[in-house]
Design goal:
Layout (H helix, E strand, L loop, with lengths): L1 E9 L2 E7 L4 E6 L5 H12 L14 E9 L6 H6 L8 E9 L3 E5 L2 E2 L2 H11 E4 L10 H11 L1 H32 L3 H17 L6 H13 L1 H16 L5 H18 L4 H27 L4 H21 L3 H18 L3 H46 L6 E12 L2 E10 L7 E2 L6 H14 L8 E5 L8 H13 L4 E5 L3 H4 L4 E9 L3 E8 L1 H13 L4 H11 L1
Parallel strand pairs: 3-13, 3-14, 8-12, 12-13
Antiparallel strand pairs: 1-2, 1-4, 4-5, 5-6, 6-7, 9-10, 10-11, 14-15
Helix pairs in contact: 4-5, 5-12, 5-13, 6-12, 7-11, 8-10, 9-10, 11-12, 13-14, 14-15, 17-18
C-alpha cells in the first residue's frame, strides 16, 4: 500500500508530506482546491510521460516521492539484477522533473520506465474520469475470471498450463531439428572445424590471457626486478652504513634512554617493531632477488600461447569468455544437426498427441469458464443495481481462439449502462461517473482475489446522490477491508466512512498555494457539515454528527 506521498515544488505546492493509512482514505475540499493534484502525482510517479509544466513557477525542479509498503511480493532477485538496495518491506519510488530531464529512482537507484510500469500493475489501480486502467483492459479479463473461479477449475487450468509449456518445448525442439536437417555437409564440416579449433586450444579459464599477461610482464622485467630488489636488500641489511645498522644504533640509544625514563618505553617498543619489520622485509627482498629467474623458455611459451589465444579472440568474439560461449553454441548446433529423420518423426507424433490432449482439456476449461462467467455476470450486475445503475447490463463475453498458454478463449467484459445503448466493451464506457461505479462494483466482487494493494477513485460520486451515495459509501467501506482505498469525494455520506480524512485547501495571497490537512474531531465535523449543506450551521452540523455516529 501507499504509506507516504511527498511533493516538492510541484504545481502549486511548495512542500507536502501526506501519510496514508490502510483502509479508507478520503480526500475532500472545495471545488478547484487542488484535490486531484495528489492523485495526479501518484499517477505521474509511475508514468512515462511527464511535462515540465508540473514544476512550480520560479523553481528549477519538482520532486515526487512515494513510499510503498510491500508485504506480498518478493523483489530480492529483481532488485539485485537492477542494482537496487533492498529496504525490506519499504519501496521508495521518486521522480525528479527538471526543465531538461526526468529521472526515476527506486530506493535511490536510477531505473527505466518498464520497471516502474511493472510495479504499478502490482501496487496501484487508479480510476478517474479521464483514464482507463487495469480492469478496463481486455487482456486482464481472462485472468480476473480465472482468479475468481480458481476453486472451481483452477487445478484443471494449472494442469493445462504445465502441459502447454511441455508442448512449447517440444515445438522448439522440432524447429531446431527441422532447421538442422537442412544443413549442408560443408556446414557440418565447418562447425566441426570450429569446435576442434577451440577444443585444441584447451582454454583453462575466461581470464587465462589476463593471468598470462601478468606473468609475461614479470618475465620480461626479470633482470630489472632482480636488480631493484637486490639493491634494496643491500641498502637495508648490507655492509656498514645500511639502514638496519643505523636503526639498530638508534634503538640501542633509545633503549638506554628508556631505562632512565619510562616515558620513552613506548618509543622503544616502536623501534623494536621497526627493526623486526625491516629484517622481515630485507629477508623477503633477498629471497625474491635470489629466486627470480630470466626463464627464456617460459617467456617464449607464454608469448606463443597469447598469440594463439588472440587469434581465437579475433575470430570468436573479442575475449575468451566469448570464445567459450561460441564453443557452446557450435556444439549445440552440431548436436541439433545430428537429429535424424526418425527423431523429427517422433517429435511430430509426440507433438500431435500433446496438442490433441491440450485441445480436449482447453475445451473443458472453456465450458467451465462459460458457466462461471454467467454466474459472475449476474453477481456484478446485481452489484451495479445496488450502486444505482439499475438499467445496466453486464456480460462476460467468451469467444474462441487458437490454443495458447491459458486455453482457447478470448474473454472480455461487456456493459451497457443505458437501456438505449447496445452492450459494448467495458473500455468504451463513456461516462466517468459510470466508470467509477462499474469499477467499484467489479472491485467489490473481486476483493478477495485481486492482488493490487491500493485502489484510487477520483470523484466516484459524480452524478449520484441520496441512496446511490449511501450505497457507494457502504461498498467503499466493505472494499477497504481488503484494499487500501484512496478517494476524492464531494459527498458527506461517503466522506463520513473515512478511516483517515484529508482536507485540501487553496490559499491566495502573494502567491497561490495548496495545503493538505488531516481532519479529526470538530474540524472533521465542520468539513462534513460543509459538504452536506454548503454552509456550516446548526442543522448541517447535527447531520454531520449523525453520519459519524
Amino acid at each position: 500500500m501507499i504509506k507516504q506521498l511527498r511533493l516538492k515544488n510541484y504545481i502549486l505546492i511548495d512542500e507536502l508530506c501526506a501519510n496514508f493509512d490502510s483502509g479508507l482514505n478520503i480526500i475532500t475540499g472545495e471545488t478547484g482546491a487542488g484535490k486531484s493534484i495528489l492523485l495526479n502525482a501518484i499517477d505521474l510517479v509511475f508514468s512515462s510521460r511527464v511535462s515540465k509544466e508540473v514544476i512550480k513557477t520560479g523553481c528549477d525542479k519538482a520532486v515526487i516521492e512515494i513510499t510503498l509498503e510491500n508485504t506480498k511480493h518478493n523483489f530480492s532477485k529483481l532488485f539485485e539484477e537492477n542494482g537496487i538496495d533492498d529496504l525490506g518491506t519499504e519501496i521508495i519510488i521518486s521522480k525528479e522533473i527538471t526543465q531538461n530531464s526526468v529521472r526515476s529512482r527506486i530506493n535511490g537507484t536510477l531505473v527505466n520506465q518498464e520497471l516502474l510500469k511493472n510495479l504499478r500493475t502490482l501496487f496501484v489501480d487508479i480510476h478517474s474520469q479521464h483514464q482507463t486502467y487495469t480492469f478496463l483492459q481486455p487482456q486482464y479479463h481472462i485472468n480476473l475470471l480465472d482468479s475468481y473461479a480458481k476453486d472451481f477449475y483452477g487445478q484443471q487450468l494449472e494442469n493445462y498450463k504445465i502441459k502447454f509449456k511441455n508442448y512449447e518445448e517440444l515445438d522448439k525442439k522440432l524447429e531446431i531439428a527441422r532447421n538442422s536437417a537442412t544443413a549442408t555437409e560443408s556446414q557440418i564440416d565447418f562447425l566441426k572445424f570450429q569446435i576442434n579449433e577451440i577444443e585444441e586450444a584447451n582454454i583453462q579459464s575466461p581470464t587465462e590471457d589476463e593471468e598470462l599477461e601478468k606473468e609475461l610482464e614479470i618475465l620480461e622485467n626479470a633482470e630489472k626486478l632482480k636488480e631493484l630488489t637486490g639493491s634494496s636488500y643491500w641498502a637495508i641489511n648490507g655492509d656498514d652504513g645500511s639502514i638496519l645498522e643505523a636503526i639498530s644504533k638508534i634503538k640501542a640509544d633509545i633503549s638506554k634512554a628508556a631505562s632512565y625514563d619510562e616515558k620513552l618505553a613506548n618509543v622503544n617498543i616502536q623501534f623494536t617493531d621497526i627493526t623486526e619489520n625491516l629484517r622481515e622485509i630485507s629477508s623477503e627482498l633477498r629471497n625474491y632477488s635470489q629466486n627470480i629467474d630470466n626463464d627464456t623458455q617460459r617467456l617464449n611459451d607464454i608469448q606463443e600461447r597469447l598469440f594463439n589465444l588472440d587469434k581465437l579472440k579475433r575470430k570468436y568474439g573479442g575475449d575468451l569468455e566469448s570464445v567459450l560461449k561460441s564453443y557452446e553454441q557450435f556444439s549445440n548446433e552440431l548436436s541439433g544437426i545430428e537429429f535424424s529423420t526418425q527423431n523429427i518423426a517422433n517429435l511430430e507424433a509426440e507433438i500431435s498427441e500433446v496438442k490433441s490432449e491440450l485441445t480436449k482439456l482447453a475445451a473443458e476449461i472453456s465450458e467451465n469458464r462459460k458457466n462461471y462467467a454467467q454466474v459472475l455476470s449476474v453477481l456484478i450486475q446485481d452489484k451495479l443495481t445496488v450502486l444505482e445503475l439499475p438499467k445496466a447490463r453486464f456480460e462476460i463475453r467468451i469467444t474462441p481462439k487458437e490454443i495458447s498458454s491459458n486455453g482457447c478463449d478470448n474473454v472480455e467484459f461487456m456493459i451497457s449502462t443505458n437501456v438505449s445503448e447496445d452492450i459494448k466493451p467495458l473500455a468504451k464506457v463513456a461516462s466517468g461517473g459510470e466508470i467509477s461505479r462499474v469499477m467499484l462494483a467489479i472491485k467489490s466482487i473481486f476483493a478477495n482475489n485481486d492482488e493490487i494493494d491500493t485502489v484510487i477513485f477520483d470523484e466516484i460520486d459524480t452524478g449520484i446522490s441520496g441512496h446511490a451515495s449511501q450505497s457507494v459509501a457502504d461498498e467503499m467501506l466493505n472494499l477497504s477491508k481488503f484494499h487500501q482505498i484512496i478517494v476524492i469525494t464531494h459527498q458527506a455520506i461517503i466522506a463520513s466512512k473515512a478511516d483517515k480524512h484529508f482536507y485540501v485547501r487553496k490559499s491566495q495571497t502573494d502567491e497561490t498555494k495548496v495545503e493538505v490537512y488531516v481532519l479529526t474531531g470538530d474540524n472533521r465535523v465542520k468539513a462534513l457539515a460543509e459538504l452536506a449543506g454548503g454552509t456550516i450551521n446548526e442543522q448541517s452540523v447535527e447531520f454531520a454528527k449523525s453520519l459519524l455516529n
